[in-house]
Amino acid sequence: xxxxxxxxxxxxxxxxxxxxxxxxxxxxxxxxxxxxxxxxxxxxxxxxxxxxxxxxxxxxxxxxxxxxxxxxxxxxxxxxxxxxxxxxxxxxxxxxxxxxxxxxxxxxxxxxx
Length: 113
Description:
mainly beta; four-stranded antiparallel beta sheet; about 50% strand
């Protein structure tokens, strides 16, 4: 059974930083990504990285968030800097293989003063 396990969420003040981690068999997937879902909103793509390290970001996080992968540690990271209240959401790790999505359980990120 393929499992993705997120960690690193928490509460932070505006302008602060957090690093999320997603542990799992990342080489199994062609694309790894981070999504988020705020209360009352649809889940949205935040960032994604392919096996060839092609990276894309949502416009709302460009210049503030960085996605990376460490194949040796089977981990994908999302470094989040200059966090804003509108970044508050549950963040989910996603892996895609042959158009099938695999999801982690999610980790809460709260940005508030």
